[in-house]
Every structure is written in C-alpha cells, then in structure tokens.
Amino acid sequence: MSELPPCPQCQSEFSYEDGVFFVCPECGHEWKTEEDPGNAADEPGVRDANGNTLADGDTVTVIKDLKVKGSSLVVKVGTKVKNIRLVEGDHDIDCKVDGIGPMKLKSEFVKKA
C-alpha cells in the first residue's frame, strides 16, 4: 500500500489522492500535494478574473455591469480603466473611471487589457 499522509485536520489514515489534492473521506478536508509544480494560485499578487497577475499602472477592462453604491450610475461591461493602483482589502483596485470618478473595484470583475 502507498504511503499517503494522514489528514492534517482529523489525523485519519484513510486519505486518498484526487488529482493535485489529498482528500479525507472521514471529515471531507482537502489539501494540496507537495508535488504540485509551480501552481499560479500560490504566487503572491492580485489576479484578475482570468488568473492573470495585475500590477500598478496596468489597464483593465470591466467584465460585468457594476452598480455604483449610493448612486444611480453603472459601470458598463467593456469599460477600460487605465493606470490602476493595487491596494490591500476586499476592493483591491483603486482607480478613476471616466465619467464616474475615483472608485475601488474588486479584481474578480476585471480582466487585464
């Protein structure tokens, strides 16, 4: 029998391998294998909706209509936002949107242009 690591959560010895994850059938916990070569999700940084790494000064395109809180304005799909700044927090992009003004966006609603 192969030597698989025990579950780090419940210490069960009945873990099994499922792709790049180990799975515990007793508690349902999943964790990554150590052999996972260069997974992009492990690299630090802010990522767009397609998984591309964003940097300060990039230009991004909005992929979904976004209502502006406290206003009747809407940022339409396809709006290009130039010269973004990355910040910490839930809304991790600080920018100026033409016709609306300064605002913060979530990186999950933009793609790199």
From TrEMBL:
InterPro entries from the UniProt entry: YjdM, YjdM_C, YjdM_N
Record protein name field: Alkylphosphonate utilization protein
The Protein YjdM C-terminal domain, residue ranges: 46-113
Source organism superkingdom: Bacteria
Family to which the UniProt record says this protein belongs: Belongs to the YjdM family.
One Pfam family recorded for the sequence: Zn_Ribbon_YjdM
All copies of domain Protein YjdM N-terminal, residue ranges: 3-31
